[in-house]
Amino acid sequence: MSALIPPSTWVTRFSEDAAGPVLDIACGAGRHSRMFLAKAMDVTAVDRDVSRMADIADHPLLTLIATDLETDGDAWRPAPLAFKTVIVTNYLWRPLLPSLVEAVAPGGRLIYETFAQGNARFSKPSNPAFLLSPGELQNAVEGKMKVAAFEHGMISTPQPAMIQRIFAVKNPSNTVS
Ligand SMILES: C[S@@+](CC[C@H](N)C(=O)[O-])C[C@H]1O[C@@H](n2cnc3c(N)ncnc32)[C@H](O)[C@@H]1O
Q1: How many domains would you assign to the chain?
Q2: What is the pLDDT of residues 47-63, one digit of tens each?
Q3: Cβ partners under 8 Å of residue 47, min gap 6
Q4: pTM (whole model) above 0.70
Q5: Is 113 near ligand 1, meaning CB less than 6 Å away?
């Protein structure tokens, strides 16, 4: 396995007291899945290319799902209210967003960080289809989760980029307080 990049600081910041089961969408090489497995949490990791997870594919706490999330019609979607922690980093497929919010269990959290409009001047992605618009993650959780932290702006590490990120929590009774 090639060297893993470290977990996102946004994810580590809001994972201290996170609970499983965890859903890691578009897990890539699994830098976040591995972090939660190391904390003995159940992890479901999803990606169309799970080859970079081969070394941990038989981990007893890992459910690895190889699927194209952008398939028309019958794409895999998480079960509603099934995950205490839902993680997405550096991936956006807008039609998936509502089901990720729905997948968060009562009292659970959504930790999402990806590229935003304006990123084209730094690097890829530059296609607007893969860039969040101002307030988009806030809008996605509105009325369903409480926004505990939100940022939209330029970062300089691990490399210059325009990003948007949210940490949102679902009410234990599944209503917004
Ligand atoms: C930039 S990587 C981010 C990986 C990981 N979340 C991280 O931050 O380290 C984007 C990931 O999205 C996955 N991906 C892209 N299109 C996908 C699709 N249609 N269905 C499932 N996964 C997809 C890629 O295989 C890749 O692993």
Answers
A1: 1
A2: 999 999 999 999 999 99
A3: 26, 27, 28, 53, 65, 66
A4: yes
A5: no
